[in-house]
Specification:
361 residues; alpha/beta; OmpR/PhoB-type domain-containing protein; 18 helices; 8 strands; WH-like_DNA-bd_sf; Arc Repressor Mutant, subunit A; five-stranded parallel beta sheet; Rossmann fold
Length: 361
């Protein structure tokens, strides 16, 4: 992986790179995220390399919060001590204070999500408070961390003061990724295929990789069909990760990270095809009584059981532009669905907002 990092030009992730470096060099705290597949593994290593090359007075320290719970604060302190080459009995707080007088410290924190324990975020915030401006944090997070409840927490207000989204690549970036993947994985994607790869994947690095693997696996010069591509499990898994953000998070998060734009257009043909033909939840014979539209509405409501589903999300599921009001036919479809799923389920209509599916006891 380090060999890949050395091949990346400074503009590989677009203007976000310079913005992040500028904020960190000024002692500010930064949150970086994007849709699944945005480069969550590569970006922190890339930034660490650039900080080392351009800022000799900055020392980076890594913290990986994946799989850690609220009991893991001692494990994090141990991670930091090991990187500072401190004896086990050395006071970490004092060491960080002393070091920050002559050296700026940037903690690169990975694996953050809404499930990250508050105790861990509180510990990381306490590092900053030892010498604000001289100690700062770059947080690499899953885009679900953009939930308001996370951003508005006392820790989030400190850690996420500057938020940057890594967008999908333009066609030049996609071509660059194809070249890197060809070398690293022995793929043979040809220039004649570049345009299709970019159009189908929308420039998402994760989708670019697995769509190219799909083409290579089946020795295809062009995609047979989007549904055939979606039958390739590794690619389907990445598409589903992105679609799950649309299904389970507030619509504004999908818009913020670029899954859909302000007009409701989906960034990738693959993701659009999945959203338009996503599998319904197989439960019982009740589904056989539902129309295709009703099955799709029910599936989204059931995926978000007992939670408000925005009417705009229902519109998108029915492939109605989200800048249009939900038509009467869609409301009628929900009303028909209500009758067909009773007495097992009930759908509560929240006027002007959306719908909530509940189970009747």
């Amino acid at each position: 992986m380090n060999n890949v990092i050395t091949q990346l030009p400074r503009h590989h992730f677009g203007h976000v790179t310079d913005k992040v470096l500028r904020s960190l060099s000024q002692g500010e705290n930064v949150l970086v995220t994007g849709m699944p597949g945005f480069g969550r593994v590569y970006f922190p290593k890339f930034i660490k390399k650039l900080l080392a090359e351009n800022y000799s007075d900055i020392k980076t320290l890594n913290i990986d919060t994946d799989l850690l719970d609220k009991q893991s604060c001692n494990a994090i302190n141990s991670q930091v001590k090991e990187q500072l080459v401190l004896a086990a009995n050395k006071d970490l707080t004092l060491a960080l204070k002393e070091l920050s007088v002559t050296t700026r410290i940037v903690f690169i924190v990975e694996g953050v999500s809404p499930n990250t324990a508050r105790e861990i975020l509180h510990l990381i915030t306490s590092y900053i408070q030892l010498n604000p401006g001289r100690i700062s944090v770059l947080t690499i997070a899953r885009c679900s961390a953009l939930r308001s409840v996370t951003l508005n927490s006392s820790e989030g207000a400190v850690l996420f003061e500057n938020q940057y989204i890594i967008p999908a690549f333009d066609q030049k970036g996609t071509i660059r990724m194809i070249g890197i993947n060809n070398k690293r994985y022995g793929l043979k994607i040809l220039p004649a295929q570049y345009e299709e790869v970019h159009r189908v994947t929308g420039g998402n690095p994760g989708l670019v990789l697995y769509f190219c693997i799909y083409l290579s696996e089946f020795e295809l010069k062009t995609c047979k069909s989007l549904q055939h591509a979606l039958s390739f499990p590794p690619l389907l898994s990445r598409v589903k990760d992105i679609a799950d953000i649309f299904f389970h998070e507030a619509l504004q998060i999908s818009e913020k990270v670029g899954i859909i734009n302000s007009e409701g257009k989906v960034f990738s043909e693959l993701v659009y095809a999945y959203l338009g033909n996503f599998p319904v939840i197989e439960r019982d014979s009740m589904l056989s009584r539902l129309s295709v539209r009703e099955q799709r509405i029910f599936t989204v409501l059931r995926e978000n059981y007992n939670t408000l589903v925005e009417k705009e999300k229902i519109a998108k599921v029915l492939q109605i532009p989200t800048n249009a009001s939900l038509p009467w036919s869609a409301y009628k479809a929900v009303e028909r669905l209500k009758a067909k799923i009773a007495p097992q389920y009930s759908i509560l209509t929240i006027k002007g907002k959306g719908f909530i599916l509940t189970e009747i006891q």
